[in-house]
Amino acid sequence: MTDRLVEANRQYAAAFTDPGMDARPVLHVAVVACMDARLDLHAALGLELGDCHTIRNAGGVVTDDVIRSLTISQRALGTTSVMLVHHTGCGMETLTEDFRHALEQEVGQRPAWAVESFRDADQDVRQSMQRVRTSPFLPHVDDVRGFVFDVTTGLLREIDPVA
Ligand SMILES: [Zn+2]
């Protein structure tokens, strides 16, 4: 399957011209989102090449590694806003921390990371906003907003941080 992607890249590169861009995101925003294949962030948010940083993982949860990326994004590359995007029907809602124990049973080693599964996407967005806002490493935490993307309508719903 990777061969297909590499072939697609050849066609992409054939039509590509150097945009001459700086690495600093034009819109000064970093988006943290779930890796879900149904979420096309650039299309859904009207983003163009060079506009923003996109940081994605399973669930779009704010882990230490996301804080690492946001810290570099803000301190080295000039972003000042953070947008968090979870979505409906997320696979993380079907997992529990038992996943780690099952892994340990199977491979004889417990992962160092937490699964970070959740039951309620709204509540996890609130927790994620809180993790960003309280990080000592981030100089810009005034503009942190969280959303749930509906994979059936394509619409974002904003989450009130204090609901
Ligand atoms: Zn997801």
From TrEMBL:
The record's free-text note on cofactor binding: Binds 1 zinc ion per subunit.
Cofactor(s) listed in the protein's UniProt record: Zn(2+)
Keyword Zinc annotated: yes
PANTHER family: CARBON DISULFIDE HYDROLASE, CARBONIC ANHYDRASE
Name under which the protein is recorded: carbonic anhydrase
Protein role: Catalyzes the reversible hydration of carbon dioxide to form bicarbonate.
Organism: Streptomyces hundungensis
Catalysed reactions, as listed in the record: hydrogencarbonate + H(+) = CO2 + H2O
Domain of life: Bacteria
Annotated EC: 4.2.1.1
Pfam families (alphabetical): Pro_CA
Positions of Zn(2+) binding: C34, D36, H87, C90
Record-linked Gene3D superfamilies: Carbonic anhydrase (3.40.1050.10)
Lineage: Bacteria, Bacillati, Actinomycetota, Actinomycetes, Kitasatosporales
Protein family per UniProt: Belongs to the beta-class carbonic anhydrase family.
MF terms in GO: carbonate dehydratase activity; zinc ion binding
Top EC class, one word: lyase
Gene that this sequence comes from: mtcA1
This protein's UniProt keywords: Lyase, Metal-binding, Zinc
Cell membrane found in the keyword field: no
